[in-house]
User: Which sequence fits this backbone?
């Protein structure tokens, strides 16, 4: 029996990752519970269990008295001396309790104590496992729609992809595998409650870490991300190694690396630009693929005035102001964009041009059709803010 118990505990420890000590403690508590159900109390019950062999003994401590009034707590002197002739009044005698003598109800209650402890420990183990994965990306399997939310299985637990964390237009089928960003893991009596997202900007960052070795190793750092989920993302990257091109590393040969991420995000376009400590240079890069004539940035006020060629104004603004809006969010600057003609007419244009290189060819390798039809109504004042401002 002890060998079977030891084997069972070993299997539980391996499969459910519950420590044997915890299981032994649960068994000890169950034996105490059984004694309480059998005798009506368990104040004087002691359980000794060998963790190596799982051999256990249950003892009832009884006081030696002249006349027994409570046979659960007391034993007569005559009975005590039948066990050992040296016992005197007031001594404590340990009487072994045979668990086989317990009734059906006491045994069932003891079993429930063990099962309850196993379930509690299993929930704790699962919670700890997924809590360590908080703010990370996991692959999940779509289970079913619950109203407008989606249940996603992450292996040992189900997560909830809420409606406001879903990308508009994305429709999933049951058993479909998707990448999700773990927002939060909460402990509840029924197990961990896991909230996941497909819209969080950090999802893009984690996907780059998984796909690009240089990002994963810290050689290339993603300094900033601006995302409009389902449509477009801009990321600014920087390399600590002068011999590693951060943009090229993220794009990959023939756009292989970035295309893998674009496919995972169901076609969401990704602009990768070079980070620069100089705000003016950073803003120029952030407005890619539009070309810029001049940038005047105020670091204290976090504002910038940008002049672009007349034919580049629509591209700099983007459809419904998206390109300028994402650039503002990426850089943290309020950006005022004007065409060269508008700047000259307002008297704000200084008669010089920034030297810039045509370093945006990489985008054509993996992104076609960027120059879309743009709404001219968004060009009136050319001023765009981060949505949070």
Assistant:
């Amino acid at each position: 029996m002890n060998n079977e118990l030891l084997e069972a505990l070993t299997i539980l420890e391996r499969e459910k990752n519950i420590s044997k000590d915890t299981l032994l403690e649960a068994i000890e508590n169950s034996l105490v519970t059984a004694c309480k159900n059998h005798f009506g109390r368990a104040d004087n019950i002691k359980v000794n269990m060998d963790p190596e062999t799982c051999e256990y003994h249950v003892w009832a401590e009884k006081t030696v008295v002249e006349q027994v009034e409570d046979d659960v707590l007391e034993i007569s002197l005559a009975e005590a001396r039948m066990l050992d002739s040296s016992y005197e009044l007031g001594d404590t005698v340990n009487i072994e309790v045979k668990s086989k003598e317990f009734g059906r109800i006491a045994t069932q209650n003891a079993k429930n104590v063990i099962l309850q402890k196993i379930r509690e420990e299993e929930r704790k183990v699962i919670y700890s496992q997924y809590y360590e994965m908080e703010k990370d990306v996991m692959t999940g399997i779509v289970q079913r729609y619950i109203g407008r939310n989606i249940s996603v299985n992450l292996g040992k637990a189900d997560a909830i992809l809420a409606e406001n964390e879903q990308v508009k237009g994305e429709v999933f089928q049951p058993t479909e595998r998707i990448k999700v960003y773990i927002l939060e893991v909460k402990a509840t009596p029924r197990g961990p409650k896991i909230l996941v997202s497909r819209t969080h900007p950090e999802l893009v960052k984690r996907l780059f870490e998984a796909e690009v070795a240089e990002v994963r190793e810290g050689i290339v750092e993603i300094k900033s991300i601006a995302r409009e989920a389902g449509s477009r993302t801009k990321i600014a990257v920087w390399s600590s190694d002068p011999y590693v091109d951060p943009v090229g590393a993220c794009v990959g040969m023939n756009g292989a690396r970035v295309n893998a991420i674009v496919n995972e995000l169901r076609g969401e376009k990704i602009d990768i630009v070079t980070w620069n400590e100089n705000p003016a240079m950073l803003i120029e890069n952030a407005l890619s693929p539009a070309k810029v004539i001049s940038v005047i940035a105020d670091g204290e006020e976090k504002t910038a005035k940008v002049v672009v060629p007349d034919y580049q104004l629509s591209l700099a603004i983007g459809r419904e102001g998206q390109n300028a809006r994402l650039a503002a969010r990426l850089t943290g600057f309020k950006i005022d964009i004007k065409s060269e003609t508008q700047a000259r007419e307002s008297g704000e244009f200084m008669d010089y041009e920034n030297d810039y290189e045509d370093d945006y060819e990489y985008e054509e390798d993996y992104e076609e059709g960027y120059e879309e039809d743009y709404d001219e109504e968004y060009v009136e004042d050319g001023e765009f803010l981060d949505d949070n401002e």
